[in-house]
Amino acid sequence: DKNVAIQISWQFEGYLILLWALGLIDEVPFPDTLVNPDSVTAVVSACDSYREFLEKCKIRSVDEVLDLADLTYRYNWYCVESKINEEEPIMNAEVVMERHRALNWLLSDEKWDKVEINT
Questions:
Q1: Interacting residues of 116 by C-beta distance below 8 A, sequence separation 6+
Q2: Tens of pLDDT along 64-75?
């Protein structure tokens, strides 16, 4: 189903955040385009074993996650203001929203599908 495929494709933005939080990628790119699913799935699929995957993980500090969450919250608010002011934002609002959701999930005890992304 096309709608299910679209919903699944948005989950790659959250996956990108999880890879970053695990220290498997160095940076989270500016949210102006969608993440390339092949590039992010290759990070984990390049591991030959679960042990190798675990050895590559270097979990980021809470401060680092909070800093990115704060920046993403501000990005999200910028996108909301752009919509209110009928302006074209310089970033992709849906990308920002999905990343915001993933960061909020990391910092909460909520289930993935219950995480709030209020601005």
A1: 104, 110
A2: 999 999 999 999
